[in-house]
Amino acid sequence: MSINATYTSLVAVGDSFTEGMSDQLPDGSYRGWADLLAARLATRAPGFRYANLAVRGKLIEQIVREQVGPAAKMGADVVTLVGGLNDTLRPKCDMGRVRGLLEEAVETLAPSCKQLVLMRSPGRQGPVFDRFRPRMEALFACIDELAARHGALVIDLYGSAALGDQRMWGVDRLHL
């Protein structure tokens, strides 16, 4: 995303990836990618406003029910939405339901902001993740389709070669 000096606010919604889990500071607080993006945008816009509504462990239904409405009401210039991956890791994941909820989220958030940003979460290698890869790819196809339909920006971390480096990951091997 190019930094636009006219962006005066950012709202981030999602799960642990957006909350910043595994990016722990010495004082025990977390500072994730959304916090870093907000700090960078704030240097260019006096009075910048930022809210990170993301909470670890949330499934897409919880994100939609608890975070999307409040985020849309904030009228931020930029809204980020990262969700659905926790759902894909569950044994009884209903991808049709995940897709419908993601669509609901995007249809609510896109008209509420100048720029909606969606993300293809980073992928991992190995037998456990290989088992879930078809669901992850279905999720990312849905994200791409919704972004194209609603003019959202997609950040593709799934295809990032740099994130294949084991040193980039937390001890749980789920978070960066």
Question: Your description of this structure?
Answer:
With about 180 residues, the protein is an alpha/beta fold. The chain is about 40% helix and about 15% strand. The protein has helices spanning about 15-20, 35-40, 60-75, 85-90, 95-110, 125-150, and strands at about 10-15, 50, 80, 115-120, 155. A five-stranded parallel sheet has the order 2-1-3-4-5, sandwiched between helices. Helix 3 (about 60-75) packs parallel to helix 5 (about 95-110) and helix 5 packs parallel to helix 6 (about 125-150). The mean pLDDT is about 85.
Write the layout of secondary structure elements.
Layout: E1 9-14, H1 16-19, H2 33-42, E2 49-52, H3 60-74, E3 78-82, H4 85-88, H5 95-109, E4 115-120, H6 127-150, E5 153-156
Parallel strand pairs: 1-2, 1-3, 3-4, 4-5
Helix pairs in contact: 3-5, 5-6
At the first level of CATH, the class is Alpha Beta
* Overall structural domain count: 1
* Strand/helix succession: EHHEHEHHEHE
Radius of gyration: 16 Å
CATH topology: Rossmann fold
CATH architecture: 3-Layer(aba) Sandwich
* Largest sheet geometry: 5 strands, parallel
The largest sheet has its strands arranged as 2-1-3-4-5
Low-confidence stretches: none
Per DSSP E runs of 2 or more residues, the count of β-strands stands at: 5
Q: What does the average pLDDT come to?
A: 86
Percentage beta strand? 5-15%
